[in-house]
Amino acid sequence: MLITHVETYAVRVPLKPERRMISSLGQHIVSEYVLVRLGTDAGVDGVGEATVMPRWSGETVWGAKAVIDHLFAPLVIGCDPRDTAEIDRRLDAACKHNWFAKSAIEMACWDAVGRQSGQPVYQLLGGAVRDRTFRCRFSMGAYDLDRARRVAAERVAAGFTTIKVKVGGEADDDLQRVRAVREVIGPDLALDIDANCGWSAETAIRKVSAVADCRLALVEQPTPDGDYEALARVRRETGCRVMADDICFDRVHAQELIRNQCCDVINVYPGKQGGIGKTRAIIDLAAEHGIACTIGSNLELDIGTAAMGHVIVASRNMQVDRYPGDALGPIYHEFSVVKQPLEIRGPLVTVPDRPGLGVEVDWEIVRENQVRA
Fold first, then answer.
1. Inside any domain, residue 163
2. Distance CA 312, CA 309 (A)
3. Which listed site, 10, 142, 192, 345, has its alpha carbon 20 to 30 Å from 62?
4. This model's pTM is above 0.85
């Protein structure tokens, strides 16, 4: 089986008004992503998704489309999609970073191989090590107090047992929001916070210590990207469990997190890590050092979320039972780009057992919602 062509579609999907995300990075009200359709001489296509966000990874919808169309596609045409190691080698040799764009190509290869062999991706990864249905936490934006209380109450009523609160802004607002959510959800449910690199080490230590009585389960990425010592300081001086996310895109980043004793948990997902195979490499490296992994999110559509789910189901060190992650992107959006949306009920996500990623893109909807120049 050989790759014959690669098509890209820049698509625009608004978020539901009640799900619009506010964080230290700003407000996310619409998703502009790139979908990849990879053709093969076996008569099957594979699909992938580049969940780009300029303020986060630096990739834009037009940049991702251009690098795939003009650089990556010519390099992979003629390759066997089963040889993802060679495809990764070619992409990495041609272009630094661009993790989400690379992931879209690699994700589409896994999908095509699964479709051709009649197997879901989690089987290609070695088989299921857990149930296909797993639990997520709910990620709440940096909302005003009334909205934060209302959303927290709604999500608990919907069955969520872990609530994540975005922080990283004004000190008083952050602390009041965290306290308000703890009051609403009660003493027994888990409460995480996520600053998206929004604090210095000193600020993070001060703020986390100020809400010590809120019994935070995890403090996610409190300090700036690239500052491993700052992250390690927060972990040492607060005694809280720390999750690394925005600071870890590749295996070298993971090695630095481990070497500097920065974290208890690493947030991984195929888009950020540059593909399913590279994600698995980080998960395995973390396992060797006794560090848990869980799933992160860039508010993926169904394609990217399906890829995340297959990694979870097939990877023992994806400790989503202990540390519920974020794989709810489709429910944040106003509509789906696939014919049969993923099964998401409250906090529970079920991974399809159909061949490949298990999703069928509705290309008519995609074409109707393409990003225009």
1. yes
2. 5
3. 142
4. yes
